[in-house]
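job 3f2a | input accepted
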Amino acid sequence: MDLPKRYTEEEMQVVTRNDEHHEAIHSDKEFYEEMQKYNQMANQQLNLTQAGNNAAQNADVLVKNTNEDWINKKWRPAMGWSYMLTCITDFVIFPVLWSLLQAVSKGQVTSQWQPLTLQGAGLYHIAMGAVLGIAAYGRTKEKLEGAQSNPTPSSPNLPTPGGAGLNPFK
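job 3f2a | predicted structure (170 res):
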């Protein structure tokens, strides 16, 4: 088994350059002391950062999600509306337009509309059903967790019918 030579000519050149650089730095005392100060400051900052990380490792941090972006709040209804629009167009609007187009161009309806979303064994409807079902389950779970953490009174203080002039049926 042949082992490669430990030092090639290029590696020796790099080592020589590093030695020259090292000598140049250490010969200028003022520069060397300034570099030591910068290194000490960097090490202190690193130690502070590590201490902060260690202090927060076992802490329970409760942060409220303040992301009020509309897509985060409205993606579930948007998915429902887009699915409804797709179904209406594929099962109601396009079949009527297809029949009208045939009646106007040929004088009679000869072929039936084939819904696009049912192509491929209706995989679109299966996928949308899964997305909307999981979204509804997740939203229900969020609401239940919110109700458990923020209990509301069971009966709000509303005026009773028969109270002082508040009866709408009289």
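job 3f2a | Helices lie at 9-27, 29-56, 70-106, 123-149.
job 3f2a | closed
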